[in-house]
Structure formats: C-alpha cells, structure tokens
Amino acid sequence: MQKNKNRAHPSPLSTPGFLTLLILPLLLTACAVDPIWEEGQTLSEVSATELDQAKALAASGRSAQAAERYLALAAESEPPARAQLRLKAARILLAAGDTGAARKALAAIRQSELSAAQRELLLLTEADLELLEGRPREAIARLERVRHRALPDALQLQYYGTLASAERLLDHPVAAARALDMIDTLLDLPQARLVNQVSLLSTLSQTAPERLDTLAGEGKGRMRGWVEVLRLSERWGNDASALAREYRAWRAAHPKHPALPELATAYVNQLASGYARDEVLTVLLPRGGRFAGAATAVRDGIEAARAADASGRRPALRFVNSTDPGAVRRLHARAAKGGADYVIGPLQKASVDALSRAGRLTVPTLALNETTHREGHASGLYQFSLSPDDEAAEVAHKARAAGLRRALVLRPEGRWGERLARAFSHQWQGLGGILVAERTIDASDAGYARQVTELTRNTAADLVFLIATPDLARLVNPLINKASAGRLPVIATSHVYSGGFERVRDRDLVGLYFVDIPWMLGVGGQGPLSRYRMMAGLDNTPDPLARLYAMGIDAYRLAPRMEDLARHPGSLYPGQTGGLSVDASGQIRRRLSLARFTVDGPRPVEVEALRAAR
Description:
Layout (H helix, E strand, L loop, with lengths): L15 H13 L10 H4 L5 H12 L3 H13 L5 H15 L3 H9 L8 H17 L3 H8 L9 H17 L3 H14 L3 H15 L4 H10 L2 H16 L3 H14 L9 H6 L11 E6 L6 H16 L8 E6 L6 H10 L4 E3 L4 H8 L3 E8 L11 E5 L4 H14 L4 E7 L2 H16 L3 E8 L6 H11 L4 E4 L3 H14 L6 E3 L20 E4 L14 H4 L11 H13 L3 H6 L5 E3 L2 E5 L5 E4 L1 E6 L2 E5 L2 H6 L1
Helix pairs in contact: 3-4, 4-5, 5-6, 5-7, 6-7, 7-8, 7-9, 8-9, 9-10, 10-11, 11-13, 12-13, 13-14, 16-24, 19-20, 21-22
Organism: Marichromatium gracile (Chromatium gracile)
Pfam families: LppC
Keywords: Cell outer membrane, Cell shape, Lipoprotein, Membrane, Palmitate, Peptidoglycan synthesis, Signal
C-alpha cells in the first residue's frame, strides 16, 4: 500500500507557486519599488485559459513546454505583460537547468518596457543565471545593481542567498557567512532559521584558522558571536552534556545574540540522521555490467552511513537492481507505490536521462549522476555526481580566488585530457582569466621534456593547470619546477592522487597542488566514517573506487535534507565529498578541498597558499 506521506517537494524555483511568491511581494509591497502592480492586473489582458494551461504544464514538470507557452503569450502581448511573461518563462527554464534558453528569454526583454519592479527582478534573475553558469563575479556584479534594501523580504532572501552562494564559490567564506547572517534577520520560522544558522557555522568552518582568530579577537557583534559558537561546538562536540552546559552559559552571557537555543547541538548533530521514524529509503543501483563495481562502493558507503547513524531513526533500506536503463522509470514508480519516502539513484547516465524525462517525480530522488541533456528535467529530481569536469572548474575557481590570472594548460592527448581542458578553459575565461597556451604531452615522445621545459620557461603565465595521472605528474612536475625556478604553481585535479603515497616513489609530486574531496584528505578526523576507519586502516592503499564510498555516505545523509537545502538560499552541508549545496536547478554543487603534496604525503591547504607560491 502506498503511504500517504509520499511526496516530492522540488526546489522552490521549480514550482509555479514560487514564481508567484517571487513576483507578487515585489509588486504588492508598498515600501518596495514602484510602480506597484499586482500580477493579476498586469496579465489581465492575457487569456486566462492560456495562463492556466502554462501553469498546469509547469506543475506537471513539463518545464520546456510551459516556458514555450509563456513566451508565445509574450509575443502576442503588450507591456507590461510582455516582460512579465518572459520573466516567468526564464525562471522556469532556470529551474529546469536550461540556462541557454533562459538567457535567450531574458535577452528578448526590452529595458525600455520594464517597470522599476521588473528591473529589480530581471537583475536578480540574471544573477541566478550567471551563478548557475559558474560566473560568481558576474552574479555579484548584477546584485550590486539591485536596490536590495527596497525589496520585500521574499526577494531579499533570494538576493542574499545568491550572494552567499557566489561568495562561497569565490572562496570567500566570511563574506558568504555575512550574507547568511543577513538572511537570519529576514526569517521568522524557527526551523528555517535553524537550517540557515547551521549553514552559517558550516560556512565559517571553511575559513582559515588565522582568519577566524581575527574575527574572534577583533570582530564585533553578531559575526564574532557566530565564530564563538563555532569554536565552542568544535571544542565540546564529542561530549553532548558538556556542549549543552557550555552553550547555555555562552547564551546567558550573550542574551542579545540571535543564535538559537538548539544551534550548537544541531550543528554538531548535522552529520547524524535527518530521517523521521519508520521512513523507507529505496536505492536504485546496478548489480551487473560495467557499473557494478562502482555501485558496490556506493552501496558500501550507504550501508556504513546507516550503521553509524545513532539517531534511532534509521530508515528501512531497500536495494533495487537498476542495471537496465530502460526499466528505471518503471522501477521508480514501483518504489513510490511501495512506500518509499526517498529514492537514491540511478547511477548510469542513461538511467538518469530516462528518469529526468518523467515530468514530475512523486518521491524526492537523488540521482547519482548528471543528465546529458540541458532542456530540463523532472521536478523532484536532484542530481549528485563526482564529475571530473567539476574538478577542472574548481581548479579555475581556486586559482582565481588566489588572484592568479594567466594560465597554461598541459594535458595528455586523447578525449579525457581534452574534456578536462575544455571544462577548465571555459570556467577560467568565464572568471576573467587568460589562457596563455594549451599543449599536449606525450611521455612516449623523447622530446616531451624539452617541450615542457621551453614552454614553462618562456611563458608569461602565473600558473600551470596540469591534467595528468600520477605517473605522468611524476614526470612533468619536476620539469616545470626546474624550468620556472619554482615560480609557477602547478595545480591538478584529484586524478594525480591515487589514494596512496610512497615517500621515495612520490618525491617528484612534492609541491604539486590538487583539488579533492575532504574524505580522501582525512579532513574531519578519524571517526567511524573516516577513510581510515572505512578502509580498515589501509588509507595509504590506492583504490580507484575509494571516492565512491564517500559519495555513498553523502547520498544517505543528503536524501532527507536535499529539499531543505533547496528551500533555503545559500545553505551549505559539510559533506565527505565537499561542501554541498543545491542550486536553482536541483543540481548538487560541491566545494572541494585544496591540497598540496609534501614529503609526508598530501596535506590540505588554504587558497592563500597559491598566492604565496607566486
């Protein structure tokens, strides 16, 4: 029998209700911008039947068709309805992840036809678009033109949420935390405030210790208090009674600070279960084929996370074989009918593609891969992947955050190297970086060493993005260091780190920077779900599937939280695979850790280390 509690709460930006919430407060709030229009009046000359049909399409998850209907109506309408309809279409397309179509819809809006209210909404929408396309600086530039203090609360929440996400993407955790602090002043519901405050502490936890020391010692007011709560939680987190006692004492000494009574416990316990009692978690994973090994690693991570869940609210686990992509929609429907509260999976891209075309999913679903198409996806579907492209883009973000601007790309021949180089270059140039040159490396060519040396000795670049396996990195890294006299920092993706380190064999990797998931770097200690414990103490042993264990851990913990993350702008969850957030299209975004090879193995470092390396 199907449970009555089965439901899907898609990202607020994917629902027509959110569009009303987004637009109406701006138009109805007397203290905001003017002229003030109520949307019903704005669209009074538009066919009500046509509008209802567009709303129905959006509600059923057919985002592309809904946007097309709104755009068709816009083409037949006069201002101010024309701009309103195009804005509605753009928001729907953004929620579906179709940024190209959203940009086209926004480009068709004439500035001369906009009311003051619509100009503000256009800027907010453009900021979200820039953020979704990985251009946080451009997003902030749009936000700087918004008269945010004149906006009603609903749109101020969007403003500060986008700002927090953009600052975090630029590796500015303190600035992101300040934006979340502003969100706290706008929220009324205690649960929403608690989610936001936990995200605020999680964001601050990514700050360099010396920067936190400065905030704690010299900061004032609310921000200083948030740092003190973070430090107190970290110090007493392993002793629940001591934490409760110390936090009560802190709140008594700071009665005017907005930190909620349950904040310290909630922050410490955020890695515990987020499930309600008697819930069911269905996991769609292949048991055969080329993805069977990856599926086993993910399953092991899920089961380990459930075993470590001491909340007393562990969900019932149901594993379903999803080897055949053609059967995935039927399997998902059966899981929903059978009482699943959440679904994790599928894993294969073909299966995610099939599920994404379902229109609307009745059960919140965390796919373990990304779709291959950009024309939209089912509402209620969230996409979580360990994409190599994301790692290349993350290198670009961290290098730009360190103030580096001119990049040289060295890659092996073949599709893999070309793909990562393309992802890096797209993000790098989108962030205002300059691509000095890109060269392929063929270690089987006797002249490769001379080519690398000449290129890095004469280049005007201030960093090298190296796409390489460990073996290739051992050959190339010393050449670059020698040719540039150590002037050029070399940064790579996690592909240079196999998970093991041998002091003699890997000495040529020393000094090389790379991005990776926190779990691989031992961030967070040696708890029951640490890499050290899960790999039975063999954390110096290479394992090509190791990162998928961490993905399984995060999938178990994300499933009951992904809707909350989507509902609360700027929210962050400190996962094993990175700092996790949900963007406007339901994509799980990861902020990776930066590490550097030392003589004793990889060690996490702050972005400032890249600046110092210059």
